[in-house]
Amino acid sequence: MTRIHVIVGNETLEATLDDTQVARDFASLLPLDLTLSDYHATEKVADLPRKLDISAAPDSYTPKAGDITHYAPWGNLAIFYKPFQTSRGLVRLGEFDGPMDALMQDGAFPVRIELAE
């Protein structure tokens, strides 16, 4: 498991990536400076610099609040703050270890994601 920090303004949120091929591929991109925006009042999304390797990932995933995921068809990062239906092409990367209130902002806002070690 890989621990990461999601930095929003002056707040640092703790999260843990799964021990999977796709999560390790995501970790190889870190640190990342991204702009998150809201999508369907369910998730925060941001474009990644490249698509991740999902060759060993399941075909679909049912996200819950706090999940960090990759939506393979669009190549983006999706952080769910509400649960959602099973979605083909959605791959779990990890989850937040605690509250993620700092992400509950309107409009687009910058975040930095980096390795905690």
Automatic annotation (TrEMBL):
Residues 7-114 form the Cyclophilin-like domain. This is Cyclophilin-like. The lineage of its organism: Bacteria, Pseudomonadati, Pseudomonadota, Alphaproteobacteria, Rhodobacterales. InterPro entries: Cyclophilin-like, Cyclophilin-like_dom_sf. Pfam families: Cyclophil_like2 (PF18050). It comes from Roseovarius pacificus.
